[in-house]
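Before going further, it is useful to explain how the protein records used in this thesis are read. An example of such a record is reproduced below.

***
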Amino acid sequence: MLCSNNYLGLTNHPALKSAAVDGVNTHGAGSGSVRAIAGNMDIHIQLEERLAHFKRAEASLVYQTGYAVNSGLIPQLVGEQDLVISDELNHGSIIDGVRLSRAERAVYKHADTADLARVLDEAEKHTPQYRRMLVITDGVFSMDGDIAPLPELVELARHHEAQIVVDEAHAIGAIGPGGRGVLAAAGLEGEVDAIVGTLGKALGSYGAYVCGSARMVRYLLNVARSLIFSTAPPPPAVAAALAALELLQGEPGVTEDLRLAASALRRSLRSEGFPVQEGEMHIVPLVAREESAAMALCEAALNRGVFAQAIRPPTVPAGTSRLRLTAMATHTPEQMRAAARSLRQAAIEVGLDPALTGEPPRGRALAPSR
């Protein structure tokens, strides 16, 4: 399995499964209502308090999905007469949240701080009518596996008096001290206006959250339509997420296992002729470019026991179809070496030169901070 977001392998961890069963026994299989009516349980509040503490934030708010967070958060931070500025490779949920906001939109080149500075300068120079500006970026880009240049982004946003939001969906649990994410790794906790994260990837459960000021969270609780008009997350998933956070704090070695597995994957791929960067990032793209080539490579790899799903437009731009490989903390070095050999054989079988099936990430591929 080389295409799961279950980075720490927690979906089958005994502690999470036991917590989910306990959640059913104590709170039921579902929440039964939206949070604003009768679906707001003590277990939801407990998770929000734990998340805020984990992320070093004043407060947090738990949603049903990461898509629900971004589609509900962004329209409440900006609207008509505002400007939202987005990295060109941001996740689709961010793109849709920007569209729903009705704000003016600008896009800067991927992880290009000079281009962001240009956009911000032009906004201040030529369009002073904006009430507010918002810069938004993924922390780890889900299809390229690179990290946003967060120190520079935060500095630019502050210099131009813009808000800044960072989506850490693919960083929480996987990167930074204690698995607290890329902001923690960069020493920027408390330096952004909102942090988005997920419970359904490295944390092995289901749901998502936003962290920020207590004032912002109170506001969202009352106005975020994607939250207000959706049934609250089910207690078993909430209980499992609580167990995952407890496990991260009690067994910090699990994030180290992921780093070692990611390093072994990258090293093994390089030894088989794939041009991937060295490092410890857990997402590795093998770009086959054409959709048909990516699908053929996926099928050939699957026949050799390697499940690496092909990613095609609209998830990635046209001409960049790929296998998006992801390491898991449960992978062994031997498995990674065997997978890399199988991927090389699969590439040759379908007429792809392994040396041409990758490209260096265009952002900042930093080694995760301990």
About this structure: The beta strands are 59-63, 83-87, 104-108, 133-138, 163-167, 194-198, 208-212, 283-289, 310-311, 321-326. Confidence is low (pLDDT under 50) at residues 363-370. DSSP finds 14 helices and ten strands in the chain.
